[in-house]
Structure prediction request, 340 residues.
Amino acid sequence: MRAAVLTEPGHIETQTRPVPTPNAGDVLVRVASVGVCGSDAHYYREGRIGDFVVESPLVLGHEASGVIVAVGDVVSPRRVGSRVSIEPQRPDPDSRETRSGHYNLCPHMEFYATPPVDGALCEYVTIGSTFAHDVPDAVSDDAAALFEPLSVAIATARKAGITGGSRVLIAGAGPVGVLTAQVARAFGATEIVVSDISADRRANATRYGATRVIDPADESVHDLDVDAFVDASGAPRAVQDGMRAVRPAGRVVLVGMGGDEYPIPVSVIQNRELWVTGVFRYADTWPTALELVRTGRVELDSMVTGRFDLDHVEDALNHDRTDGSIKAVVTVTPSQETLS
Prediction:
């Protein structure tokens, strides 16, 4: 099969690799669509994200959909032919975190495109059968791939306690910020304020659920008195200002990739008894993602602003630098050689 391989920062090489063989509880998926995440771009450009360092050739991509073409020995053969959205996680079923329901925090996790585990920018992948979620024909391949970033937004909204009547501030109108705005609206939030320094991104936020947008260079958020603040920007100033916008006993959820350390207003957290937490991936989100998309409460297909093939993965990884971009998707079509 063909695979797009990161061989060094800034260089993707198309290689020929063996088609993987599914283990007993796995399925083999012919990849259809792969969304490009900000983490993919970080690995491509810098070769690392925090403590995760690319030390050997790596296949990027963890937002994926496809069709099951083979199954392991203990998986029902009736699954062959099923269209699926891939939850790109392999937790250790015996870890304390997995057994307590927090499998996303499993210290032995093997996660697509997190060094040294290869991802989905290739023609075929394997995944545990329970992590290959069936999708109906009404859901496109692109949308099925984007269940993964949607799951980040769902996990974020759950942590933020968003429900009917909630007032929410979201800093950052990139893909996760826009998806979080959509989920907040679907969960019943009545006021969804999104701040971003980019006019294009503010316009995207308005299109996808924001009731109000703010340019933080021109307008303070301190007096918003919201129930929850979500940082999807990773910008220290946005985090500091956002915390000051939260009412007493409100919630702060940090999901954006920013610096490893930066100052936060501790006295605000203490005096208002704010709940502050982070989001690291997700757990048990795919059923909710499917329902939100199936019922039209979250729109994914229109968020795709660039489509590329497996021979132009570098262009897909740089799409985030294009004006008006939201999400790039790589369409993976197996070569005739592979199919034969």
